[in-house]
């Protein structure tokens, strides 16, 4: 199996999410205050969308949003670079994992058909986990498999900002206008943003961004 293309400093980021790290991931993240803000804001955004859609969650991680998807009666799929993370999700979710199409794979080369899903969800990924050049490849793939909506976590700078180096994570360096331009370039039209983490000292905020797909 080829190594995933999601690279930071020459290594697949997914390589860090195996065994004990994967097993303890959910427990560790739940201690973060902004984890709970993310949960609340995601729930509110999903409540605005129709029921009974198909959703793909990338990276799937421990399946933290699965109970929300079940509440909406969604058909659920997911992809993660780490099989151990998916195994952790199965253990955590129990019977809620039944019927989920969760795969190990590369987000820059997705094993899904064109316009296969009504909704794509991606958090804690494109902003910091992959370099900017790969993030753009992944956005292209996200747009390819999505036909109606997307909720993508990204950040922007409250000052003028700048375009990051291709071989560095985008972080929150883009200005709001540049971030909107980036998303529009791949067919994601911004409908609403929900602040999930404010970085006052740096001026770089993180949002859940609800988008609809351009016709």
Describe this structure in words.
The chain is of the alpha/beta class and 215 residues long. It is built from six helices and nine strands; from the N terminus they run E-E-H-H-E-H-E-H-E-E-H-E-H-E-E. It has a seven-stranded mixed beta sheet, with helices on both faces. Strands 1-2 form a two-stranded antiparallel ribbon. Helix 1 (19-29) packs across helix 4. It is globular, with a radius of gyration of 16 Å. The model is unreliable at 1-17 (pLDDT under 50).
* Uncertain residue segments: 1-17
Helix content: 25-40%
Give the topology string: H per helix, E per strand.
EEHHEHEHEEHEHEE
| Number of beta strands | 9
The biggest beta sheet is recorded as:
7 strands, mixed
Shape descriptor: globular
CATH topology: Rossmann fold
């Amino acid at each position: 199996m080829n190594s995933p293309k999601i690279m930071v400093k020459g290594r697949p980021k997914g390589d860090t999410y195996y065994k004990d790290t994967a097993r303890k991931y959910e427990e560790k993240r739940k201690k973060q205050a902004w984890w709970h803000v993310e949960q609340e804001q995601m729930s509110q955004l999903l409540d605005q969308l129709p029921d009974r859609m198909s959703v793909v969650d990338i990276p799937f991680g421990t399946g933290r949003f699965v109970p929300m998807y079940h509440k909406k009666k969604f058909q659920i799929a997911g992809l993660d670079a780490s099989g151990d993370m998916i195994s952790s999700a199965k253990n955590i979710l129990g019977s809620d994992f039944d019927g989920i199409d969760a795969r190990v794979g590369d987000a820059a080369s997705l094993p899904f058909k064109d316009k296969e899903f009504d909704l794509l969800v991606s958090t804690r990924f494109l902003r910091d986990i992959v370099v900017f050049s790969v993030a753009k490849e992944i956005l292209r793939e996200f747009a390819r498999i999505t036909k109606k909506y997307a909720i993508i976590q990204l950040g922007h700078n409250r000052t003028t900002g700048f375009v990051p180096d291709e071989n560095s994570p985008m972080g929150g360096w883009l200005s709001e206008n540049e971030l909107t331009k980036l998303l529009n370039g791949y067919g994601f039209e911004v409908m609403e943003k929900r602040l999930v983490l404010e970085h006052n000292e740096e001026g770089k905020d993180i949002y859940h961004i609800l988008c609809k797909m351009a016709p």
